[in-house]
Amino acid sequence: MTVHTKGDGLPGPDETRPHLGIERAAPRNEQMAADKVECNACPVLCQISVGRAGACDRYANEQGVLVRVDPVVWLRRAPNHAPLQQALMARAEVGPQALPEAGSADDPDYFVTGIGSSTTYPDYKPAPFIVASKVRGVDMVTVVTEGIFSYCSFKVKIDTDRFLGPEQSAVRYRGEVIGHVTTAEYGSQMLSLGGVHHLTGGSKKEGRLTLEAMHLLGNLQPVEVDIEQGAKVRLQAGQAPVVNGVAESRMRVGCGSAAVGIFAQQWLGLCDEVVVVDDHITGVLSEHQAGRCLNMKPTGVGIRGRKSTPGRYFQVASPGDGWGGTDISDPLSILEPFDPEVAWPGLRLLMTSTTGEHSAWFVLDDQLMPQPAPMPEAVRQVVERIGENCEPSMVSVLFLAGAGGSLRAGVTDNPIRLTQAIKRALVNVTIGGASAYVWPGGGITLMADVTRMPQGSFGTVPTPAIVAPIEFSMKLSDYQALGGHMGFVRTLEDSLRHGAWHNDGAPQKMVWQAPEGVQPWPLHQPPMLG
Ligand code: SF4
Questions:
Q1: Rounded distance from Cα 42 to ligand 1 centre (Å)
Q2: Ligand 1 center to residue 462 CA distance, Å?
Q3: Average pLDDT for the chain
Q4: Which residue has the CA at smallest separation from atom 5 of ligand 1?
Q5: Per-residue pLDDT averaged across 281-286, rounded?
Q6: CA dist., res. 352 & res. 2, Å (int)
């Protein structure tokens, strides 16, 4: 039978903190080798030898004492006049260094994140940092903890028209299924990666590789995935996607119909017909409402596919990595013969994709067959303007997690009150200082952009689960009302000087946070100060 210590190796709430002058000792499990300490911070319960780290590399045995290895991350507010370049040092490490004073007593420049803050899973102690500060005359508190999430995933938005794979297709990382293709959005393909079923519901290998891919993605590292019946895609938050070895550059200006609407006036007089090829909606200028409003003549053009409304066609081809996210390389392949009752020799036809990357100019011959011809300069300029209006393609990675479990016990004796206070917008929730969107409905289901968090915000434990920071900021009076651990509220200065109340030996470091306008300062959110 395995016997474990009853503590987590860190001092308990009833122990005096070392900075108050009393040393702490590692709790002992009498059946464990004398030179080991047991870490109970997660259910893995590592028994760690002197000089070694536990399975997650976050805790180590330092001469018989369990210590935290990685630092607690503080955010330092960048001055509002800081140039963007400096602001974007948000993810660059500035420390470790001698920690400065807290700044203005009425609007401090420092904010402690949950990164490296240390807590147990499940939580049975007050959160490691419960920090009081005064912000613009209001007494505030920020309750900071480090969550261990098995219910979490990454929603990945990939700005491309290119076909990545059918909806619901499996997404594999190093051979294991770690997610699937989900509903496409406007100009972007979407993946859902990770989640509890891949982490814990499949084989051990599936769980391990899912965790590895999630950890990399969250920490802004590249991950290459294979989509069944689709493409190989390199994903990295904040960078261009690489689809089958080719870096994507442009996000489409809109669907084919939108492109017709945007550029109709500029084509008037230069073209008799424009077909904007798009996997979703292919637009045909003369039939489209935009062309009709400009009194454009019908041209008798015939389009393959299913007509939706005038000048808007679905399914002109199969999805692919050709023109406009279709599989075509020859635009004429989507045309039916021109209607001889309507079309005329010399008719000028522009065909373009929704990014302007593909375009061709044709003139009808005497048999009403489109013949390639040099594109007039004025037409080329409008095609180039399509490209100019395309935003750069990017991979966006949002962390989505459920924080409705035991971590709430570190905040309050009565967890439902925290959930209710969040729903009443009394609490601002951040993840590593990044604003989190809280879903309506039950629980505390959060979503945040990983590029707004400090580098290295995510860790892992081999249960397997993701370790992620979380911070709850609110008025001190609201904290008291929801049953907060008032006996553990400490000043910002004391927290800066001594770290977490349990003083696990973790070093502290500073990172810049982008100025407001780029990223809101966590303590300036309207719910608390309004
Ligand atoms: S995996 Fe990390 S947190 Fe979990 S018991 Fe081991 S050292 Fe502690």
A1: 5
A2: 8
A3: 88
A4: 45
A5: 97
A6: 69
DSSP 464-511: TEEEEEEEEEEEHHHHHHTTB-GGG-EEHHHHHHH-STT-----EEEE
- Ligand 1: which of 44, 66, 123 to mutate, judged by most atoms within 8 Å of the beta carbon? 44
Residues lining ligand 1, Cβ inside 6 A: 39, 41-42, 44-46, 54-56, 58-59, 461-462
Helix extents (H) in 152-273: 196-200, 204-218, 256-267
Pairing assessment for the beta strands 273-277 and 434-435 based on DSSP bridges: unpaired
| pLDDT over 80 at 100, yes or no | no
Helices and strands in the chain, H and E counts = 10, 34
Best of 2, 36, 52, 56 for a ligand 1 pocket test (most atoms within 8 Å of beta carbon): 56
State the Cα–Cα distance between residues 478 and 426, nearest whole angstrom: 7
CB 275 within 8 A of CB 338: no
Q: Quick one: CA dihedral 367, 371, 374, 380, positive or negative? A: positive
384: part of which helix (H) or strand (E)?
helix 377-388
Atom 7, ligand 1: which residue's CA is nearest? Answer: 54
Is cis: bond before 376, omega within 30 of 0?
A: no
Residue 106 in contact with residue 134, Cβ under 8 Å?
Answer: yes
- % of residues, the chain, pLDDT over 70: 88
Q: What angle (nearest 5°) sits at the alpha carbon of residue 279, between those of residues 275 and 280?
A: 95
Which atom of ligand 1 lies nearest, measured to the CA of 59? 7
Check if the beta carbon of residue 149 is closer than 8 Å to that of residue 444.
no
